[in-house]
Amino acid sequence: MNVSLSSGIVPAAFKQARVTPLLKKTTLNPTQVENYRPVSLLPFLSKAIERAASKQVVIFLTQNDLLHPKQSGFRSSTETALPSVTEALRVARTEGQSSVLILLDLSAAFYTVNHSILLTTLSNIGITGIAHSWFKSYLTGRSFEVSWQGQLSSTHTLSTGVPQGSVLGPLLLALYTTSLGRVIRSHGFSYHCYADDTQLYLSFRPDYTTVTHASLPVSLHSPHG
């Protein structure tokens, strides 16, 4: 583990995952592939070294105030997205404002992470040198095989994404999506995130029939007034 962290190289054996599909809910149709969550089972030593790396990264992010205040997932925080958004909407109502709330769930979030963008993001926040090389090694050369009903598939390589079921995956996803905040704010929305779930909300005076173009470029109409 020490050699890996000091050299910036993750052993190939640590990057081979066995994927076991798990039904998301017992009420879902088990014959439909989209109803399964493909959890990656990784070697014990792989998770041990990830935990060591994650601890150091979190310390670095905390000391440099780089943890996103609007992301409640993947961190030890007393504030979650639900109380934060609920309180903001309550205050808006107290002030006589109407609110629009949009709930977003990023589909296949863990599997669509672009490695090049993620590595650039890490570099921009100050993770450089051997540490950056280690993360590049961690992301590249990954492979997986699927275990289903006692059978194993052939091995496939991965060119995108972070493993769901890994220790570092959630933290890397949180860092990867941090830049979305600037886009959301540029349209006048407030927001809060919990993992890959995002709550967008916008409060305005009830006599506004159309929210300004800088906020929400659509007319708001209610069939019930």
UniProtKB/TrEMBL annotation:
Residues in Reverse transcriptase domain copies: 3-225
Pfam families cross-referenced by the UniProt entry: RVT_1 (PF00078)
Record-given protein name: Reverse transcriptase domain-containing protein
Species, as recorded: Coilia grayii (Gray's grenadier anchovy)
